[in-house]
Amino acid sequence: MSTQRGRIQISGFDTERVTEREPLSAWSEASRGTTQSRWQRAWGRFRRNRVAMIGIWTVAFMVVVTVFARPVTVAGVTIQPISLAPYDPSTILYLDPAADAGRFDPPSLTNPMGTDANGRDLLSRVMVGGRASISIGFVVVFITASFGLVYGAIAGYYGGWVDEIMMRFVDTVFAFPALVLALVIVAILGGGYWQLVAAFAFPGWATYARLIRGEILSVKQNQYVTAARALGARDRSIIFKHVVPNAVAPLIVQASLSIGTVVIGVAALGFLGLGFPPGTPEWGTMLDQTRQTLIQGPGGSIPWWATVFPGGAIFLFVMAMNMIGDGVNDALDAQQVGEAPQGGGE
Fold this sequence. Notes:
With 346 residues, the protein is mainly α. It is built from 13 helices and two strands; from the N terminus they run H-H-H-H-E-E-H-H-H-H-H-H-H-H-H. Helix content is 61%, strand content 2%.
């Protein structure tokens, strides 16, 4: 009786090559060094976008200047002692009522941006004024994007009557123009930093909720979501570990573009006299205090610097944020997700 009975012999199969080949772990380590994730590819495309990088450096420069313009004190403790601004923004440098000296002085070596109607240095006020405008933009977008992400993810994932009820509330928010609703909230709560944050955060979250909800309606149909459900994963785990990471790209684009929109809105309320109290070094409030100079200045002259420099700061920041937003949009474009990165294959 043959001892080879029941065995299958495959011709052309070299067992020695199987035993001598490299371990699978070595293959995985080699492929890990050349394969890039979606976010790594997006970051690579973003860095190659010169316009977007100019926007990044512009925003970074403006943020650094505003943070280090004057010392920052919290609860009586100085947490930032550096002062880049030449003067305190509320200090009246000099003012001679008889000669009208110090009021609307033109730009000079002493005051590179001139002075305002009260003899205060405009350069110092523009530098410090960016703290309120820029920080409100980032804070509002963080709050609205976070809340809208959770709200829209729940509505899109569960669907049915849960989606209907939640999205009808979103439609109610969209029924009011955002700036008009912000005006109403500021009129009720009054002006101030957190009042402005509430005024723009309350209507702003609805955009993110609708956006992420639409993406999740598509993503939740994928097979990996079905597999996670079959394995008994909790809904919370499926939403925030499997669904949201694959649907969050449009939300990031919207957030990067919304920061500039919020800054313009804050400046608009300040220009209307509904933002910060008069005299506060904030870009929109500064424009409100000097808008009469566009018609007629002291002595028949027009002190253009009183409005050009605060308005120019708003323009520069918003333009830089739009450049960043366009760069993020191009980097996260769904049609380019499968693009092979330079220097390696997929």
